[in-house]
């Protein structure tokens, strides 16, 4: 199956690079089948960012931990908002809605540092 993306700047459909797929929410994800298993290598808000990471993985001969996700636990709610969601024993926990990706990543990093327990946060400095 050939995948295409519509480019506004050229007003044409262009073929997506190998291993990159576009989600319904507009983000791009890197997937690769290894030994019959489909591995997920991350999702990115722009095609350029996905291409950059794909080039890195190819340069490392795909010997990078596929569980690394630059935006793990971050879901785009709409064009201008991002949510932090973590699945615990089949239950989704929500950790906030943010107006930009940078703020969502910062808060997610705080959550990771305190092992998802806000009561453990004493002081956090940038």
Describe this structure in words.
This protein is an alpha+beta fold and 126 residues long. The chain has two domains: 1-70, GCC-box Binding Domain (2-Layer Sandwich), CATH 3.30.730; 72-126. It is built from two helices and eight strands; from the N terminus they run E-E-E-E-E-H-E-E-E-H. The protein has helices at residues 47-59, 101-113; strands at residues 4-7, 12-15, 20-22, 28-34, 37-44, 74-78, 81-88, 91-98. The protein has a three-stranded antiparallel beta sheet with strand order 3-4-5. The chain has a three-stranded antiparallel beta sheet with strand order 6-7-8, covered by helices on one side. A hairpin with a 4-residue loop joins strand 1 (4-7) and strand 2. The longest helix has 13 residues, at 47-59. It starts with a strand and ends in a 13-residue tail after the last helix. The model has no long low-confidence stretch (mean pLDDT 80).
In short:
The protein is of the alpha+beta class and 126 residues long.
CATH architecture of the largest domain: 2-Layer Sandwich
Kindly report the oligomeric state of this protein.
single chain
Q: Mean of residue pLDDT?
A: 80
Helix content: 10-25%
Low-confidence stretches: none
Tally of distinct domains: 2
Major sheet characteristics? 3 strands, antiparallel
Radius of gyration: 17 Å
Number of helices: 2
> If you consult CATH, what is the topology of the largest domain?
GCC-box Binding Domain
Count of distinct strands = 8
């Amino acid at each position: 199956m050939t995948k295409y993306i519509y480019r506004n700047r050229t007003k044409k459909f262009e073929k997506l690079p190998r291993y990159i797929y576009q989600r319904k929410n507009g983000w791009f994800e890197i997937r690769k089948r290894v030994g019959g298993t489909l591995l997920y290598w991350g999702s990115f808000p722009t095609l350029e960012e996905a291409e950059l990471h794909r080039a890195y993985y190819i340069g490392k001969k795909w010997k990078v931990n596929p569980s690394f996700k630059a935006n793990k636990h971050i879901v785009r709610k709409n064009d201008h908002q991002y949510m932090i969601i973590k699945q615990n024993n089949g239950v989704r926990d929500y950790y906030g809605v943010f107006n930009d990706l940078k703020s969502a990543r910062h808060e997610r990093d705080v959550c990771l540092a305190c092992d998802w327990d806000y009561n453990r946060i004493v002081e956090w400095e940038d």
